[in-house]
Structures are given as C-alpha cells and as structure tokens.
Amino acid sequence: MEVKLEVFRMTLYLTFPVTMFWIANQAEWFEDYVIQCKRELWPPEKEDQRRELEEFKERIWKQREEKLLRAAQQSS
C-alpha cells in the first residue's frame, strides 16, 4: 500500500509543475488574459483626462515654486 501512495505522490509532484508550465506557455491564452487584465487595471486614457492631469501638475508646480520663493524671501 505504501508503494502505491509513493507512486501517486511522485506522479503528482511531477505532473503539477509540468502542467502549470504547459498552461503558462499557451501564448494565445496568455495574451488574451494579460490584455484583458491590463485593460481592467489601466483603462485607456482619454485626451481630456490627460489634459486635466497636466494642468493639475502645472498648478502644483507653480504653487510649490511660489512657496519656495516666499520662504527664500522671508529668510533673506
């Protein structure tokens, strides 16, 4: 009985990695899955969203520069 159990365990230990390797190397499945996941996580940006983000960055940058300029003028 113990030999049968060992044979089963060895078969399981060998087939699991081989099966996972085979599944992971299915290019069509992998590409479809990865593309779908990427679209869910990072949807394509719209032009107006990009423009708003750039304007926000500019406002923050100007506020930071003004704050540093005021701090430099006060310390002088």
TrEMBL record:
Task: Output one GO BP term.
Answer: mitochondrial respiratory chain complex IV assembly
Q: What is its main location?
A: membrane
Q: Which UniProt keywords apply?
A: Membrane, Mitochondrion, Transit peptide, Transmembrane, Transmembrane helix
InterPro entries (UniProt xref):
Pet100 (IPR018625)
> What membrane topology term does the record carry?
Single-pass membrane protein
Lineage, top-rank taxon, reads Eukaryota
The subcellular localization recorded is: Membrane; Mitochondrion membrane
Its Gene Ontology molecular function terms? unfolded protein binding
- GO cellular component term, pick one: mitochondrial inner membrane
Q: Which Pfam families match?
A: Pet100
Q: Give the family from UniProt.
A: Belongs to the PET100 family.
PANTHER family reported in the protein's UniProt record: PROTEIN PET100 HOMOLOG, MITOCHONDRIAL (PTHR33968)
Name under which the protein is recorded: Protein PET100 homolog, mitochondrial-like
